[in-house]
Design brief:
Elements: E1 4-6, H1 15-30, E2 38-41, H2 43-52, H3 59-74, E3 77-78, E4 84-85, E5 87-93, E6 103-107, H4 113-121, H5 124-142, H6 147-161, H7 171-189, H8 197-211, H9 215-224, E7 232-238, E8 249-256, E9 263-271, H10 277-280, E10 286-287, H11 291-294, H12 296-313, E11 317-324, E12 327-335, H13 340-352, H14 358-363, H15 367-373, E13 377-378, E14 385-389, E15 391-394, E16 397-403, H16 406-414, E17 419-423, H17 431-436, E18 439-442, H18 450-458, E19 461-464, E20 470-472, E21 477-479, E22 485-487, E23 491-495, E24 500-503, E25 508-509, H19 512-517, H20 530-545, E26 549-553, H21 557-565, E27 571-575, H22 585-593, H23 597-621, E28 626-630, H24 643-655, H25 661-673, H26 685-690, H27 694-711, E29 717-722, H28 728-749, E30 756-761, H29 764-768, H30 770-773, E31 779-783, H31 784-792, H32 796-802, H33 804-809, H34 823-840, E32 845-849, H35 856-865, E33 869-872, H36 877-888
Parallel strand pairs: 3-4, 16-17, 17-18, 18-19, 26-27, 26-33, 27-28, 28-29, 29-30, 30-31, 31-32, 32-33
Antiparallel strand pairs: 1-2, 2-7, 5-6, 5-7, 8-9, 8-11, 9-10, 11-12, 13-25, 14-24, 15-19, 16-23, 20-21, 21-22, 23-24
Helix pairs in contact: 4-5, 5-7, 6-7, 13-20, 15-36, 20-36, 21-23, 22-23, 23-27, 24-25, 27-28, 35-36
This protein binds adenosine-5'-diphosphate (ADP) and magnesium ion (MG) (2 copies).
One magnesium ion (MG) is lined by residues 633, 723, 762, 783, 785-786.
């Protein structure tokens, strides 16, 4: 295998091998853009190193070969005393993990070559500044020295000289710092800072490999669902210098606004600075537009390059660049992260520009982003106390108690508090706190600061760079201009869409996207929200191409009506047990306690008209669309009083000698029905077979409701679903009884109701014998919640609290199988059962009800398996529609 690729050898499609940074550096090189020459060590080399603990044998020679070529091209040798070549050693994985892994700049400097660099550049200060940066970065990331030690020495140097920023330190100061930094390294690592440039490089490469497995990198990957075994590539890139004086500098830019999608000039620039100074917020950056005044030639070239990149990548790109004495260099680009709203807007803008088609537009957005846009926002009409304003970095409305460190954020959120993490600026060590917080507020840094980038990635509300706020993390308080002080525990509200910060709790209102889905806002109106227009268009693209239909899980007319507004094409699951609660509970009790046939029939007769009434309403609100009604499923004891409470009541009554006959009977029944394992007990079809007349009553109610709707000139399309079937015999018996009931109703009303009868597939045995079951079923609906429980053999109600966290931490699951379908296990049963069912009955209708129906990844799976529809809760319908479209596009 080849482990090293020159930048001229790669391209943007080699991200697996070269990482995102390397692949895009190669792409830019081949586009003829000014990229400092260099080469990339592959992720394969990293993986081998991580597996075996040593670099692959062939790596060293290959690196030497590419380094030789680089030295020839540059006319300098790495770390050469009089004319040194310097390089950066940069991490870069397939998926961007901002700030998670290591990069070391200025490799090749030593006590000797620092003088060569000074001569080459004609600046002592610059050379020694570069050298102290090398020792600092190398010391921290490669040798593991506590970075604060260097920071403190630097602060002390500034204090001693009475200056505020590092550019005010001169050559002598830097030289002195180099001496101190070397002492720190020697003291902390018990060895001297390595003077051999090749050794520096090799150690840095190894450190980058190892940075793949730091705790913070692992945590970030889990959060972002990035596989843990990809490894990182390493880029060795010849150095260009932004710290050579006022005609030099470094910056970051976006080809459009990552928050709104608008085209324009977005970015930050920092004069006389190197690399990470911009992101770290060491000094205040200026808006990119000001570069035009500082250096018009470089500015114009940069604008030109940004246009080239957008047209080439056909998407928003973000960029890192450096200007060395008036010469522009491109150091990185990638398709940029964006807010959810911008993703929709950019997708439609690019369609309008003719850069992409509708199918591609669908790939530029996703259901998670749509879900984010459906979050509520702050009520504009609410009375608020504005205490400051920062940069709107990641949208959303977050309310919580102020905390000033990550540790407290995690602790408080574990005990159920909502918190806002307030920091001067964040760094990768704050990741845990950011995950726990509702929102993040910083007083420093721009749209490209760590807080902003990471929050956007996580879909978390963030306001950054609120410079007028003074954050004191030691005293745990924040002081706003008017003198308002917020202490730890005070409630604050932050608006990530406007950057506004409020004291106290601001009430929230629904998002415009929800208002649009609800039909209260129209995308066609001239003044319609831009975002709503974009969402409307993308939803239309999805609806045009998707093959899966989307139904709702809804039990009442109100939910059904909302579902319909959200685009539901029917009801995939109406649970009838909710119709047995409330004041009807007593009737159910009478049914359970019935000793004689008459008593039971009387109880059923009482329930019948009520059930019928429910169905009439439901069929009316879903007129013309299918409604799948599931017959009673849960164990009966759920309708009876709690066993402990009732026992106490009975015992108390007995001690007072006024026992209540009914309570005694109830208690007997509770004992009789008590099960060790109700989930696997008397429920579903078993109830129908054991309690005479129960299912018949429900079927009759459905049939009569359908007849009533017909009489009212409606178009009811009821489907009757039998739960928890394990064998075709169960279904046959229920079916026969149901067909008789339906026939009677049809005769009595003189109509044909066209009712169909099907079953849930939610037990492994049902899935395994689906071919037989299909003989008695008009449709299957995969109940993937129960199927997951029974296939894995664990209870959904218990595992989340008991061992799931451990499983997730150990990587046994990437995500809970109740959230995203387990394709290999549960999914393969679904796939086989669908095939077997259709083999028996080619027109068998197939759907899925259960939480997976609204989960993006699962929707793609159900599309692929060839189901006819998914059914999910009303709020998730737009997400399911979108994902079904993305799966088909
Ligand atoms: P990250 O992935 O954290 O952005 P990078 O590898 O991009 O890390 O490097 C960190 C900083 O150093 C960036 O600002 C980058 O532009 C700068 N940098 C990296 N390599 C060079 C180089 N060869 N010359 C000048 N600056 C560099
Ligand atoms: Mg970078
Ligand atoms: Mg079930």
């Amino acid at each position: 295998t080849k482990f090293v690729y020159d930048f001229t050898e790669g391209n943007k499609d080699l991200k697996d091998l070269l990482g995102g940074k390397g692949a895009n550096l190669a792409e830019m090189t081949n586009l003829g853009l000014p990229v400092p020459p260099g080469f990339t060590i592959t992720t394969e080399a990293c993986k081998e190193y991580l597996d075996s603990g040593a670099e692959p044998a062939a790596l060293r020679a290959e690196v030497t070969e590419h380094l030789d070529a680089l030295e020839r091209q540059m006319g300098k040798k790495l770390g050469q005393a009089d004319n040194p070549l310097l390089v950066s050693v940069r991490s870069g994985a397939k998926f961007s993990m901002p700030g998670m892994m290591d990069t070391v700049l200025n490799i090749g400097l030593s006590d000797e070559s620092v003088n060569g660099l000074a001569q080459q550049a004609g600046s002592e200060r610059f050379a020694w500044d570069s050298y102290r940066r090398l020792i600092q970065m190398f010391g921290k990331t490669v040798l593991g020295v506590d970075g604060d030690l260097f920071e403190e020495a630097l602060e002390e140097a500034k204090r001693a000289k009475g200056v505020k920023v590092d550019v005010e330190l001169d050559a002598a100061d830097m030289k002195k710092l180099v001496g101190q930094f070397k002492e720190i390294v020697a003291k902390e690592t018990e060895r001297d800072f390595p003077q051999d440039p090749r050794e520096q490089m090799d150690l840095a490469v190894r450190a980058v490999f190892e940075s793949w497995n730091t705790d913070r990198a692992k945590l970030y990957r889990r959060q972002e669902r990035i596989p843990g075994d990809l490894g990182t590539a390493v880029n060795v890139c010849s150095m260009v210098f932004g710290n050579l004086g006022p005609d030099s500098g470094t910056g970051v830019a976006f080809t459009r606004d990552p928050a709104s999608g608008h085209q324009g000039v977005y970015g930050d620039y920092l004069q006389n600075a190197q690399g990470e100074d911009v992101v770290a917020g060491i000094r205040n950056t200026v808006p990119l537009a000001e570069l035009e005044q500082l250096d018009k030639t470089s500015y114009d070239e940069l604008m030109q390059i940004m246009e080239t990149l957008e047209t080439h990548y056909k998407d928003l790109c973000d960029i890192e660049f450096t200007i060395e004495r008036g010469k522009l260099w491109m150091l990185q680009t990638r398709v940029g992260k964006r807010t959810a709203g911008a993703a929709f807007r950019i997708a439609t803008q690019l369609v309008d520009q003719g850069l992409i088609d509708e199918a591609e537009a669908l790939q530029r957005v996703n259901g998670a982003q749509l879900a984010q846009l459906m979050f509520p926002r702050f009520d504009e009409k609410a009375k608020t106390e504005l205490i400051g304003r920062g940069i709107a970095a990641s949208p959303g409305a977050a309310v919580g108690k102020a905390v000033f460190d990550s540790y407290t954020a995690v602790k408080w959120s574990r005990s159920g508090e909502k918190v806002i993490l307030i920091r001067r600026e964040t760094n990768p060590d704050d990741l845990n706190g950011m995950i726990s917080a509702e929102g993040i507020l910083t007083s420093r840094g721009g749209k490209t600061s760590h807080a902003a980038v990471v929050a956007r990635g996580m879909g978390k509300t963030c306001v950054c760079g609120a410079e007028e706020l003074e954050v004191d993390t030691k005293r745990r308080c924040l002081t706003a201009p008017g003198g308002v002080v917020i202490e730890e525990g005070d409630v604050v509200s932050i608006d990530g869409s406007t950057g506004k910060i409020y004291l106290g709790e601001v009430p929230v209102v629904p998002s415009p996207v929800v208002e649009y889905f609800e039909g209260r806002m129209h995308a066609g109106a001239d003044d319609a929200d831009e975002l709503v227009k974009a969402v409307h268009r993308v939803m239309a693209y999805a609806d045009r191409v998707r093959r899966l239909r989307v139904r709702a899980n809804a039990d009442n007319a109100e939910d059904a009506a909302r579902a319909r507004r959200f685009g539901a094409q029917g009801i995939g699951l109406c649970r009838t047990e909710h119709m047995f609660l409330g004041e009807r509970r007593e009737m159910v009790e009478r049914l359970i306690l019935a000793d004689t046939g008459e008593e039971r029939e009387a109880a059923l007769a009482e329930l019948l008209p009520l059930q019928k009434g429910d169905f009439v309403e439901l069929f009316e609100s879903m007129d013309g669309l299918p409604v799948t009604v599931r017959l009673l499923d849960p164990p009966l004891h759920e309708f009876l009083p709690d066993i402990t409470e009732l026992s106490v009541r009975v015992a108390l009554a007995e001690s007072r000698k006024d026992s209540n006959e009914n309570d005694l009977r109830l208690l007997q029944a509770v004992h009789r029905l008590h099960e060790q394992n109700p989930m696997l007990g008397l429920r579903g079809v078993r109830l129908g077979l054991v309690i005479p007349g129960l299912f018949a009553m429900q079927v009759q109610a459905i049939a009569e409701a359908a007849a009533a709707r017909r009489a009212a000139k409606g178009d009811p399309r009821a489907e009757i679903m039998i739960p928890l079937v394990g064998t075709v015999q169960e279904l046959e018996i229920v079916r026969e009884e149901a067909e008789q009931v339906i026939a009677e109703v049809e005769r009595a009303h003189g109509v044909e109701l066209g009712l169909t009868l099907g079953t849930m597939i939610e037990l492994p045995r049902a899935a395994l014998t689906a071919g037989q079951i299909a003989e008695s079923a008009d449709f299957f609906s995969f109940g993937t919640n129960d199927l997951t429980q029974t296939v894995w053999g664990f209870s959904r109600d218990d595992v989340e609290a008991s061992f799931f966290t451990a499983y997730l931490e150990k990587g046994i699951f990437g995500v809970s199988p109740f959230e995203t379908i387990d394709k290999d296990g549960v999914g393969s049963l679904v796939r086989n059962a669908a095939e077997a069912g259709r083999a028996t009955r080619p027109d068998l209708k197939l759907g899925v009800c259960g939480e997976h129906g609204g989960d993006p990844e699962s929707v793609h799976f159900f599309h692929e398996v060839g189901l006819d529809y998914v059914s999910c809760s009303p709020f998730r319908i737009p997400v399911a529609r979108l994902e079904a479209g993305r799966a088909a596009a």
